């Protein structure tokens, strides 16, 4: 029983209308990553990540594997399921879209996160976010008399192809994609982020606050990753601490682009509210809000994330989603007295309720708190974004996803994963696993 694996590379993070259409999250429900360690930056990195982010990791230069066929067999003697060179031994979590599993490459011992997506939901989201006219890079174009769709994955292949080309040290990387043409599931193999989220807010949405130097390090990593996404024409739309993970070296990776969206340089408008309510900007909390700036929305969410870093709690509170929206719209921003004056100034600029007055990324990256009073300036934008994605070829689109040849193998693996997951939850008396990497 065999199934082809396709090797994609890229970043995490997912596929939405922006490639990232492929994240397996709903708007408000996400799998949270269980941290294995609390990573603390060294003194040498307490102000900012390495000056050249492209030199922080060799992953951008690695060759993406092309695996033409993958066989799935149950390997009881190894305590898991073998999928080609991968041994899947542990279910990390389950979200609305399916199972997230730990997969180990038996050729070198490297661990990955294997995640399942609903092709129907991805296609549906792509159609909803592509109302007709092209929004850049040929995405969303329609013909007057479209021919019947031959390839059911056609609406998302371009997003996959773009995701495959994203290369930045602070964007999670996608390695392989598996598709069964007879089933709704699409499986993806991502890099692991062993240390989990930068800040584990928990179910009560509180956590121990980070020091300002530590928060600065993680904030600048996120800022550089976001700048790269925006330069590639992508808005994330769900920035929050849970979606900022650390690998074993303490390098931050942005994940969960499940609601992200592509925009053109001329208009970065997004049409629908998406993401986590507590991190949503005021302009998206209003009914009938119309088009809003996706980049400004991302910067608000990043501001809320920074607030969480340094306080350990959210800036606005509500007992329900409507109450949260009302608080975001009406409550004034309150800053704790222990925050430094430069940090307070930055938060006020990023959390301006008027998107037209909210600071843009170019202003934020030069702020004294971000650069530690010019002692740790960020790498220049032109260097940070030198590998941004500007286009994909027809060949890259056509090769974005490979098919799995055997339906039976996928069903067998899915049943094994789900059975073991339910057994473990029953044994532990829990309803949800906290250890899924960027599900």
Automatic annotation (TrEMBL):
Q: One GO cellular component term, please give it.
A: cytoplasm
Judging by the UniProt lineage, the source's domain of life is: Eukaryota
Q: Where is the Protein kinase domain?
A: 86-370
Please state the span of the N-terminal signal peptide per the UniProt entry. Answer: none
| Residue spans crossing the bilayer | none
One Gene Ontology MF term: ATP binding
UniProt keyword annotations, A-Z:
ATP-binding, Kinase, Nucleotide-binding, Serine/threonine-protein kinase, Transferase
Q: Which residues bind ATP?
A: 115
What InterPro entries does the record tag this protein with? Answer: Kinase-like_dom_sf (IPR011009), Prot_kinase_dom (IPR000719), Protein_kinase_ATP_BS (IPR017441), Ser/Thr_kinase_AS (IPR008271)
The cross-references to Pfam families, in alphabetical order and at most eight, read:
Pkinase
GO BP terms: namely:
intracellular signal transduction
| Family annotation (PANTHER family) | MAP/MICROTUBULE AFFINITY-REGULATING KINASE, SERINE THREONINE PROTEIN KINASE
In which family does this protein belong, per the annotation?
Answer: Belongs to the protein kinase superfamily.
Q: What is this protein called?
A: Protein kinase domain-containing protein
